[in-house]
Design goal:
The complex is a heterodimer. Chain A is of the alpha/beta class. Chain B folds into two domains: 189 residues, Rossmann fold; 63 residues, Arc Repressor Mutant, subunit A (Orthogonal Bundle), CATH 1.10.10.10. Chain B is globular, with a radius of gyration of 19 Å.
Chain lengths: 503, 259
């Protein structure tokens, strides 16, 4: 007696099809063998499946039982194969053919109920891509799977219910499909209008949001660097559907997706502590690597407070993902790639004690200590940050008298328009323009070019720095709605280059 | 003639020290200072720019240049016919307790000690005190009343130190060319410290000493921040403003350019 169903395992965001076959022999000792390169979590499925079948009031075969997971050379991990194994056994006993175009996913409890597994959204999208039309998932994960278009999602509460459904005795109704596209974004917790003064830094945030540029805020403690950084997601446009799905996929893999509202339209904001390890930031773990903070910040903001305190190798590991927008990690179980297109906001003090640039409090650091500190910041990573701004402490008495600035809402409208112009012109944000396309798409008027070149020679700017300033000028022009980059756009862009001034 | 002061001066103090060094050097006065960062270096530099002779009194052995970044400056001092002087044996590393003794030597070598920008408790004030003990003349350059770097110099002035507005004040105290006292005082403008007539009004809102940030300027001028940032950068490109303490200050014309 032979029964079989389809399922899948995940390798990062890749979905690999697994064919589960169960064979019940005519005789034998009642031994249950599981073959097909199963990892420990999958081998344990035998015990869960046996108990779940018995406790559901179904009969477990007392002759020899063999379950094969094909393809045999693919290593299988995770608990999602429990349900397909049990269903394959049930189908074998019932002499039924597997339902066509259908896949199963779920962990079993000993009492036969179906439990949550990580990555259901990823699996559902992948299976849809492999041509499946129907997927059986744990009931609590059904909202997640239902986000995928053109896929019938059957929520499974218990093994018995699934078996009854397949035998046609009692049908389960499919989950309501579709993402709630019209859901509104909740007002952000941090609004720019609450930041008094700091116009320069606020403008830098706007430029960063509009062009996708990375940003460094440098200033004494209490200047409001963290508050400014937290305002950035609020001036970014809400996620598009495909972006929201990408964000949700990473969260799904980590099991961090809220059950009731799987799709979140707000931009992610991640602020790892400076003691974070390389694996925590970039991604890692045994076997196959799991996504790290940079992938959690995908399509959103990665905030590194006290950047000079991060371990140097950790910071250096950021270089590749910053350039490419994705990260590839190889571990013993193979190599996986995760998306990591984020806006980096780094904050730093000007010196170890923090008060070097303060007008009132004196700095107690030696010159050598300041040099060492700033050297730690400089180098290849800093070279990839387009905007650098000094943030100064606003004295308490003027804090109250400073006018409230614009709301995040109205800044965001300009950002959305500027982004729209870029996407229309070049299909990508300015920060991702490569030099040849920059020359082709971002024309400089003769005075603009002259100014940029003059600064470049005066400050000894590198070729990379030259192009960075050029891109920022393009963004300033886009915020203005200007076709050509005028001289004042270039001047503004150069004003955000603290590193040239220090040199 | 010793010129001493803060190791972390404002752009104003640095410009004054350099200007004094330049004018005194040109008048043939030997400028003595301590080869330290800030005012000391500016004074040496000014004198060298005038082709003058300058002497560095060191708190280390003469073969130990401290800070090491000043080895180029030390070479220039020697090339200009000046001297590196130290009371300490060769190879003496920088030690905190050696510097007050160095300051005393500096006062002993000079006829007049000029203090440019010294916060409370600055080493420059030790030099001034030593000068008084040695019955030498002490003079001071006034600064902004808002700046902590003026506290030391202003208290010297209150206690009777001579007021320095330009090199002539110093030359008069040295009794070199006393007759210049009859001349009308040159206006600050002709000395290069004055306001330059402003492009677009931003310069007139900036200070020589205290850094203002772009937000404050934008608010005072009622201009959009993007425009203010652009204009400030244009001024920076022309050398009319400088970045300082996370904000902007007016860049004073440096002695170099006048020479």
């Amino acid at each position: 007696m032979l029964g079989s169903v389809d399922s899948c395992v995940l390798a990062g965001l890749d979905v690999r099809r697994v064919h589960v076959e169960a064979d019940i022999a005519r005789g034998g000792d009642g031994k249950f063998s599981l073959v097909g390169l199963a990892a420990t979590t999958v081998k344990e499925a035998r015990e869960r499946v046996r108990s779940a079948i018995r406790n559901s009031g179904l009969e477990f075969p007392n002759t020899r039982l063999t379950v094969n997971l094909a393809p045999a050379e693919l290593r299988k991990q995770g608990t999602g194969l429990d349900l397909p194994i049990a269903i394959a056994i049930a189908l074998a006993r019932a002499h039924k053919a597997p339902p066509p175009g259908t896949a199963f996913l779920g962990e079993l409890a000993l009492d036969g109920s179906v439990r949550h597994v990580h990555g259901v959204l990823v699996a559902a999208r992948g299976l849809r891509g492999l041509g499946y039309q129907r997927i059986f998932v744990p009931a609590e994960d059904s909202a997640e799977a239902a986000l995928v278009d053109g896929l019938e999602v059957i929520p499974c509460a218990s093994l018995l219910a699934v078996v009854n459904h397949l035998l046609g005795t009692e049908l389960i109704s499919a989950a309501q499909p579709g993402a709630d596209v019209h859901a509104s974004v909740e007002p952000t917790e941090h609004d720019l209008s609450e930041v008094h003064g700091q116009e320069e830094a606020k403008r830098a945030l706007e430029v960063a949001a509009a062009g996708g540029h990375h940003l460094l805020l440098s200033g004494p403690p209490g200047a409001g660097k963290t508050m400014l950084a937290r305002c950035l997601p609020g001036i970014l446009p809400p996620l598009e559907l495909w972006e929201a799905l990408e964000v949700a996929q990473v969260r799904s893999l980590l099991g961090e997706l809220p059950r009731d509202r799987p799709l979140d339209w707000a931009r992610p904001f991640r602020a790892p502590h400076h003691s974070v390890s390389s694996a925590g930031l970039i991604g890692g773990g045994g076997g196959l690597a799991l996504p790290g903070e940079i992938s959690r910040a995908h399509q959103g903001v990665l905030f590194l407070d006290e950047m000079a305190e991060f371990q140097s190798p950790v910071l250096q590991a950021l270089r590749q993902p910053i350039e490419s927008g994705r990260v590839t990690i190889t571990r013993s179980g193979g190599s996986v790639a995760y998306p990591a297109r984020f806006t980096l906001v780094a904050a730093t003090n000007p010196c170890p004690c923090g008060w070097a640039a303060d007008a009132v409090r004196a700095c107690r650091c030696t010159r050598a200590a300041i040099d060492t500190y700033q050297r730690r910041l400089s180098g290849p990573l800093l070279d990839r940050i387009d905007l650098q701004v000094a943030v100064r402490r606003v004295p308490l008495e003027t804090l109250a008298s400073e006018p409230c600035g614009e709301t995040s809402w109205s800044v965001r409208e300009r950002v959305v328009r500027a982004r729209h112009r870029q996407l229309l012109r070049q299909g990508t944000l300015n920060a991702q323009l490569k030099p040849p396309r920059l020359r082709q798409l971002a024309g400089l008027t003769p005075p603009s070019r002259h100014t940029l070149e003059r600064w470049s020679t005066q400050r000894g700017m590198t070729g990379r720095g030259f192009h960075r300033a050029w891109r920022v000028a393009r963004t300033a022009a886009d915020i203005d709605g200007a076709e050509q980059i005028e001289e004042h756009h270039v001047l503004e862009a150069l004003g955000f280059r603290l590193q040239d001034v220090a040199a | 003639m010793a010129i001493v002061g803060s190791r972390r001066p404002s752009p104003y103090g640095e410009a004054v020290a350099e200007q004094l060094g330049l004018e005194l050097g040109r008048a043939g006065v030997v400028v003595v200072s301590g080869l330290a960062l800030g005012i000391d270096a500016a004074a040496h530099r000014g004198a060298l720019n005038a082709g003058g002779v300058t002497v560095a009194v060191m708190g280390t052995g003469v073969d130990v240049i401290y800070p090491s970044a000043h080895s180029v400056l030390a070479d220039a001092i020697l090339a200009g016919g000046g001297a590196l002087v130290s009371q300490f044996p060769d190879g003496t590393a920088p030690r905190r307790h050696n510097f007050p003794a160095r300051n005393f030597t500096m006062a002993a070598l000079s006829d007049v000690v000029i203090v440019v920008e010294a916060a409370e408790g600055s080493g420059a004030l030790i030099t001034a005190e030593a000068a008084l003990d040695l019955h030498k003349e002490v003079m001071a350059v006034p600064g902004s009343v808002f700046s902590p770097l003026s506290v030391g110099t202003h208290s010297l002035l209150r206690d009777g130190a001579g007021l320095v507005q330009n090199a002539r004040d110093v030359l008069a105290a040295l009794k070199v060319g006393g007759e210049v006292l009859d001349d009308p005082l040159p206006t600050p403008k002709s000395l290069g410290f004055g306001l330059r007539r402003e492009r677009d009004g931003i310069l007139s809102h900036l200070s020589d000493v205290l850094a203002l940030d772009a937000s404050e300027i934008a608010r005072k001028l009622q201009l959009p921040i993007a425009e203010v940032l652009g204009r400030l950068t244009a001024l920076e490109l022309d050398g009319a403003v400088r970045r300082h303490q996370g904000g902007y200050v007016r860049a004073l014309r440096r002695g170099k350019e006048r020479a």
